[in-house]
Amino acid sequence: GGLQFMSTSGDIVPRLITWVVGHNTIYSANTKHLYYTNISSDPISWQAAKASCESAILYGLKGQLTQVSSSIENNILSWKMGKNGWIGASDAAQESSWNWLLGTVATPFWSGLNSEYGGTNLNNAYTAWEPIGIASTTGEPNNLQGDNYALMQLNGFWADRPNYDPLTRSYFCEFGSTGVVPSLSLIHI
């Protein structure tokens, strides 16, 4: 079997195509990863969300809380999933030193408070911290006491929150960083 993309449009501009492969699961042809959002009626802590993703397997791929590496990935999560949810970043090990935590591997990507107060991305890493004036007068990350875990908000911006936030009921798992990535062939006619 196969899948064929057909268009009657004369427009040859490249398109970003994502595929819904199940309830709350999408596949991005651009990142070649699967993304799954778990939505609960009860609040879930960041630590519990991380453990849940790391114990999950989808189509033979091991999961992790999502590491957002590009605006494309950020858009997939915020636009396609349509929920606030935990992502795989934390500064719990050292305040103001943000890392993507993938299993036992920590990858630094941000240092300091928000960019208005001297914070900066590391190694040209992608970030989407909420700027001052959107929903907060301080911007994000604001390093309020106990705010050590990254939450992607519905508007696509990130915020730092405590491990347990009573309003957070979802999280984003990513599959495809390790193992065999499902292949998808598209033919444009």
How would you summarize this macromolecular structure in one to three sentences?
The protein has two helices and twelve strands. With 189 residues, it is mostly beta strands. The two termini are 17 Å apart.
Strand content: 25-35%
Q: How are the strands of the largest sheet arranged?
A: 1-2-3-12-5-4
What gap, in angstroms, lies between the N and C termini?
Answer: 17 Å
Number of strands: 12
Q: Radius of gyration from the CA trace?
A: 17 Å
The count of helical stretches stands at: 2
Largest sheet: 6 strands, antiparallel
Uncertain residue segments: 184-189
Helix amount = 10-25%
Mean pLDDT level: 84
Order of helices and strands: EEEHEEHEEEEEEE
Mass-distribution shape: globular
Computed structural class? mainly beta
Defining key terms:
mainly beta; six-stranded antiparallel β-sheet; 11% helix; disordered C terminus; globular
Give an account of the 3D structure.
The structure is a single chain. With 189 residues, the chain is mostly beta strands. 11% of the residues lie in helices and 31% in strands. It has 2 helices and 12 strands. The protein has helices at residues 46-55, 71-81, and strands spanning 18-22, 25-28, 33-39, 57-58, 61-65, 85-90, 97-102, 105-111, 120-121, 149-152, 158-161, 170-175. The strands form 2 sheets. The chain has a 6-stranded antiparallel beta sheet. Strand 8 (105-111) and strand 9 form a beta hairpin. The longest helix is centred in the middle third of the chain and has 11 residues, at 71-81. The two termini are 17 Å apart. Mean pLDDT is 84; it is low at 184-189.
